[in-house]
Amino acid sequence: MPKKINWKNIRNYGSLLALIALMIFLGIASDRFFSARNLTNILRQASVVGIMGVGMTFVILTGGIDLSVGSTLALSGCVGAWLMKGGMDWPLALILSLLLGAFLGFTNGFFIVSLNIPPFIATLGMMGVSRGFTYILTNGAPIYGFAEGYRNLGNADIFSIPIPAIIMLLLYLVYFILQNRTKFGRFAISIGANEEAAFLSGIPIKKYLLLFYMNLGLLAALSGNVMAARLDAAMPTAAQGYELDVIAAVVIGGTSLSGGQGTVIGTLIGALIMAVVRNGLNLLLVSTYWQQVIIGFIVIGAVAFDVLNKKIKN
Amino acid sequence: MENDFLIQINGVNKTFPGVKALSDVDFTLKKGEVHSLLGENGAGKSTLIKIISGAYSKDSGDIKFSGKSVNFSSPRDSIEKGVAVIYQELDLVPTLSVANNIFLNREPKKGFIFQNRAIIKNAREILKKLDTNIDPFKKVKTLSVADQQMVTIAKALSQNVKILIMDEPTAVLGPEETKKLFNIVKQLKKQGIGIIFISHRLEEIYQIADRVTVLRDGEKVITTDVKNKNDPDIRQIIKWMVGRELTKQFPPKKNEIGETLLEVKNLTKKGVIEDVSFNLHKGEILGIAGLIGAGRTELARIIFGADAHDSGSIKFENKEINFRHPTKAIRSGFGFITEDRKNTGLFLILPVKNNITIANIESIIHSGIISLKQEKKKSLDLSESLNLKPLNVDITTRSLSGGNQQKVVVAKWLFTQAKLLIFDEPTRGIDVGTKYEIYKLMHELSSKGIGIIMISSELPEILGISDRVMVMRKGKIMKKLTTKNTDQEEILYYAAGGGEKSA
Amino acid sequence: MKKLLVFAMVLIAVLGLSVEVALIAPAFTSTFHVTVANGAEAQAEEYGWTIDLVAPQQESDYLAGLQLIESMLTRGVQAMSVNMISMEAMIQGAREAGAEGVPYFVHNSLVPLPEESDRYVTAYVGYDQRKAGRQCAAKAVQLLIDRYGEAKGQILILQGIPGYHTTEREGGFREIIELFPDIEIVASQPADWLRDMAMSVTENVLQAYPNLDVVFGCSDAMAQGAGQAALAEGKDVYTIGIDGNPDAFEDIKKGILTATAATQPYEMGAIVVRSMKKVLDGEEVPHFIVTPTVIVDLDNVDDFM
After folding, report:
1. What is the domain extent for residue B46?
2. In this complex, do A144 and C92 lie within 8 Å of one another by their Cβ atoms?
3. Angle between helices C91-100 and A205-231 (to 10 degrees)
């Protein structure tokens, strides 16, 4: 456990302030916003994007990107559901589903490090491949009706905190330590800061890149199971376009798309901002089209803030 | 009224967070003069240049261009006033042709259509003025560094430049190319262009400069005319720069050569190096001389495990080794201080301490967790022993001067407790005072029994530092010499192809 | 302004001056769902109710749909009606609404949810797809009798993507046609609900069966595509579809489409709200509320435009 947080190192001071400001504004606009029930709703709603976001942070820290997370989520979720429907116990199905996610991430990594395909292209391709397999497996139809134990993964509370939120927050704690206190984080940031220097410093770049993409695949699969448990249905069309939400959360959190700079805590804040905006505007009956517009501006605003910040420091 | 001064700077100040970069600096530049700006890294040269070129804005003070006060807010303003800067990192577009680079963004056009013929014609004229035969159709990335620099100068000339700032233009040039560059500078002088010239090779001042200004710690030490080779004397200049007497350019040797550390036999990689064999002993400094493209860096990368080889063997401490990745080389005790610090040596956007510990991060990991306390302490200790300025391991490496960045790279390999260090152009872009420190450090390392391979294009350095010299050409070893029995001429003779067996 | 409005709405809801209900659509990207919403809104207005009309941005975002249900529960609506492409994905929504005692309607679907979750659903409001298929078949038979003086002729069926909708609509259609031995279904081909695919399938079938009399499309879009293909080939083919969207009515006027079984989404929306009122007033409603489908052709199309 880190003994103290160095606030100077948390670059996303700005996004934290933005989150607080947004919450105050929405609290004023809707008297239901600050109800305990709504706040736990927000945490639960942030979890799907948030869980993937922590993995995406490491991939983006290396200077990479993964566009296939939405498809990985759908395929892993559907395969898990399919296994359960075939009579498998849910814990085993869950584990196999997570392994499948890790395998899909590994495939991304393999294309990137062994065949030197740019991450954008490799994962764009896998986005189609995984989605295609999802439709092939399910014939386009949802798989629904799961055991209660499994459903709890998405819906139950512990001390009135939703389990998906607990999973997410625990993951952020673990990955916060991984980022700041282990090779895992140190190497990610080094590879993103200067890949050649990282190579000449003895960092096994390929091995770690594989690891980062596998890790993200695994987390996407976890998100997929949380979502399937939540809906009590695995949808082949699930999470279309979520890859962009995940990337947006990472970017809003202050992580640089060119790599080498960023924090997982920033991503958590980014995911919360997106969830707060969606939830608050839903409460205010603002159409989802406008929500899209507003989130778009938040992404641009976050990056502009970052760029200005750097300029001022110079 | 006709004003002879192109630039008059009075009492300029500039402060960065935590650093006073310039304090009350005066500086002038006359028409048709070469004014050499000297100082150690971090003395404020770059800041001054950036203020003149509008990249930074001054905090206070007065700047006049041709007698008129100005206040630039962006490089665009200075370009309009006829200022052109030729940086060490040439800002050309590698995939465009020479001609297109020269007229980038100022292409002669009719409507929206570029007049390609006019572009080529104008480019040819300018290149002709510079007395070069660079083909204007060629893509810039195919040119040598020297030619690329020429293109940058051509670009500046095409913009009706009045003030040309050259930041270490000779660092990447060979002797012939340097001579050619100086001829061009002299020609530009005649046209009334004022030139601010920065170089770490002090002897060049006598060939080219009319006046010198020395900066130290952000303050002006002196501005004086350059009369002849003795006035000002080179030792005096160094004294101004470092603020103390530097009697020798190279520290005395005290290393003892021990048993064989590295044994390279018949090392070959097709088209890169051929049949390279040599030994390195503990405590020895082996210089590798040769022209650019002789295969020296490539050899170093192969030994370090960064590139593969086709045949041959390497023995380290009497054991056969064949590294397939630098990780293994580093674990065995190899360190590689690369030529291009910024692109291959450092993580510029990361803190100094990260840079120092990265290659041996295991040593501060306990049950999987990095000890930030130890990281800070150990990197600070190393930085202190290397006299790093400023002594702060939390700041980004980018904010350090070139010499101090090099110290960070050295610290990184000290942290791995390397037994063999490869220095590739260890003092490129580094000022006199820091150079001396680096040489001293190399001697200290070798006296501790570390074997050092030093690749260098600066012959005085090779002769001043190494125990033996190996001259390479076209991937082959031409000659092995004992340093004390050789001289610059002999090394150059072999480097340029002398003694080659004719077919 | 908006804030004020929201505030006023909340105030009214708190003071019990008004009833607030919600209608959640799969997305507002199709005319059908917009029309349902319009019908519901008009009916709510008549009652002096507030109705929240919301939808995810895209039909496939079920998680967003669930989050909307939660937000509506947080708002404190007194009843809600939900439609998603796959209602199974909203079982959890039904459970949450059930847990709060908020009447949960499913509209545009008469397919019961799995047993365990069915009990959370107050009522299903939708049209009977099989019946619509039967109505289309009856219209086809009538057209053939008008043409030949007896029930005979050749029919092509264009199927949507395999699934419940296609099965029901085609099944209903076949039930009737099979009563007439001289009417031949020459082919039953998938056209994936797509207009252009329907066009090329029809073109191909017309080569093999130049005397084709009727094309039945399981949706208007497919029937309209078939109509275009027949027109281009210069064939006099009757085309019949299901849906009754405004553009289908236009095509009836143009002669591209012969008839459609109009599912009357506007009416469906109104029925949803009327059923809500009954439930809130403590009355019983049937578990399955069937909304009417009507055959629209050139004779009565003006009444629907």
Report:
1. 5-242
2. no
3. 50
Write out chain C residues lying below 8 Å of A238, CB-based. Answer: 60, 62-63
Three-class secondary structure of residue B462 per DSSP: helix
In Å, how far is A149's CA from the nearest CA of chain B? 34
Return the CATH number of the domain spanning residue range C129-262.
Answer: 3.40.50.2300
Q: What is the pTM of this model?
A: 0.79
Question: Domain check: are B194 and B304 in the same one?
Answer: no
| CATH class (in words) of the domain with range A35-308 | mainly alpha
Binary contact (B326, A313; C-beta < 8 A): no
Confidence (pLDDT) at B248: 65
Higher pLDDT, residue C4 or C172: C172
Structure tokens at C179: 């009563």
Q: What per-residue confidence (pLDDT) applies to C2?
A: 58
Prediction ipTM score: 0.85
Q: Give the tokens for residue B244.
A: 């103390």
In terms of CA atoms, which chain C residue is nearest residue A46?
C67
8 A C-beta contact, residue C66 and residue A227? no
- Cα separation, C14 vs A45, whole angstroms: 26
pLDDT digits (tens, 9 = 90+) for B74-108: 888 888 888 988 876 677 888 889 998 888 877 77
Enumerate the residues of chain B whose CB falls inside 8 A of the CB of residue A198. Answer: 347, 358
Secondary structure letter of residue A182 according to DSSP: S
Q: What is the pLDDT of residues A3-62, one digit of tens each?
A: 444 444 445 477 888 899 999 999 999 988 999 989 999 999 999 999 999 999 999 999
CATH number of the domain that B154 lies in?
A: 3.40.50.300
- Together in a domain, B269 and B297: yes
Nearest CA distance, C204 vs chain A (angstrom) = 27
Residue B502 lies in a domain: no
The mean pLDDT of chain C is: 91
Burial-class residue A124 by CB neighbours within 10 Å (0-12, 13-18, 19+).
middle
Burial class (CB in 10 A: 0-12, 13-18, 19+), B355: buried
Contact B327 A203 (CB under 8 A): yes
B327 at A interface, C-beta within 8 A? yes
Instruction: Inspect the structure and tell me whether chains B and C have 3 or more CB pairs less than 8 Å apart.
Output: no
